[in-house]
Amino acid sequence: MFETTIRFKPRSEWPSGKTQDQLIDEMNAALTIPGLANLWVQPIRNRIDMLSTGIKSPVGIKIAGPDLKVIEKIGEQVEATVKAVPGTRSAYAERVRGGRYVEVRIDRVRAARFGLSLADVQQVVALAIGGENVGETIEGLQRFPINMRYPRELRDSVDKLRVLPIVTEAGATTTLGAVADLVVTDGPPQLRSENARLNGWVYVDISGRDLGSYVAQAQKLVSQRVELPPGYSITWSGQFEYLERAARKLQLVVPFTLVIIFVLLYLTFGSFGSAALIMARYRSHWSVVSGCCSCWATTSRSPPPSASSR
């Protein structure tokens, strides 16, 4: 991930008839980098979203389950599905298996021939390749750790690691390749988890649509086209979480407000009938207000155009 902050010129210097959405669409079409997806978000809003939900885009989809291979496969299906939803500017599913690792598979029998135990070989690998702090140097007010390991020219390739020298307790010298097999394997570049479950995230940027109606249509399409195996789940996150929280609060606040208004009317007129008559007279207004809590997610306005590209 890398970030570019774009500073717009004054609107008086913009081309005639250009809007911020149109400028973003043109920049999005011009900036295409293989393996990356563009997200156009206001810088400050982006920081708030990342701190509160962890999602950098307006809409985020979290796929949880026990197997990273299945999570990645589901993520690719969700990515392809949401790209078909009108209003999708970009969609990108994390590739959770893009890492490359060197595995040291110790052979106990071969190690025993040299008088080495499993722990002895592991200690050599940890110290000689990974390094270990053996002390600390103090220079004025600064402290620096002293780390010991083999020089880089002896450990910068798998072939060199195979001939890495190991000295046994008896004084004999062997190599790491003589007591272990070294292979390069695929693995996750990072592990992401929530609620003790492995996660893969899909980032979605939208334009020209309000957030609520977009997510409603995307959820319907994903549920129809993406089949989840047992033990896997999909959670919609990002700015959409704010809409859900607001809708839940309105479901409590709006009825409570109407009750308070009715009590105030009763205290003013001293009659339940008069208070009920006034409430009934303006029932159309109450129905609009009370309906907000049920349709908030589908009538909310879309977030303001952005000035930052990720």
Index terms:
disordered C terminus
What would the principal axes of the Cα set say about the shape?
A: elongated
SSE arrangement, N to C: EHHEHEEHHEEHEEHEEEHEHHHE
Mean pLDDT: 82
How much helical structure, as a percent, in the residues?
A: 40-55%
Structural class: alpha+beta
- Please give the number of β-strands: 13
What about the largest sheet?
5 strands, antiparallel
C-alpha termini separation: 7 Å
* Cα Rg: 30 Å
User: Tally the helices: what do you get?
Assistant: 11
- Regions with little confidence, pLDDT below 50 for 5+ residues: 292-310
Strand content: 15-25%
If you had to describe this structure to a student in words, what would you say it looks like?
The protein is an alpha+beta fold. Helices cover 44% and strands 23% of the residues. It has helices at residues 20-30, 43-52, 68-82, 108-113, 118-130, 158-162, 176-179, 211-225, 240-269, 272-281, 283-299, and strands spanning 4-5, 59-65, 88-93, 99-106, 132-139, 142-148, 165-167, 173-175, 180-187, 193-194, 197-206, 233-238, 308-309. Strands 2, 3, 10, 11 and 12 form a five-stranded antiparallel sheet that branches. A two-stranded antiparallel sheet has the order 1-13. A two-stranded antiparallel sheet has the order 4-9. Helix 3 packs across helix 8 (211-225), helix 8 (211-225) packs across helix 11 (283-299) and helix 9 runs antiparallel to helix 11. The model is unreliable at 292-310 (pLDDT under 50).
